[in-house]
Amino acid sequence: MLGCEVVREAISRGWEHWAPSRGEFDLTDPVSVAQIAVAESKFDACINCAAYTAVDRAETERDEALALNALGPAYLAAACLQAGTRLVHVSTDFVFDGTASVPYRPGDPTHPLSVYGESKLEGEGPVLGSGGNVVRTSWLFGPERGGGFPGAIVRAARAGRPLRVVADQVGTPTYAPDLARLLIEMAAQNAAPGLYHAAGPEALTWHAFAERAVRACGLDIEVQPIATSDWPTAAHRPAYSALDSSSVSPFGWPYRCLDGRRKTKGQRLCLGA
Ligand SMILES: NC(=O)c1ccc[n+]([C@@H]2O[C@H](COP(=O)([O-])OP(=O)(O)OC[C@H]3O[C@@H](n4cnc5c(N)ncnc54)[C@H](OP(=O)(O)O)[C@@H]3O)[C@@H](O)[C@H]2O)c1
Question: pTM higher than 0.85, yes or no?
Answer without folding.
Answer: yes
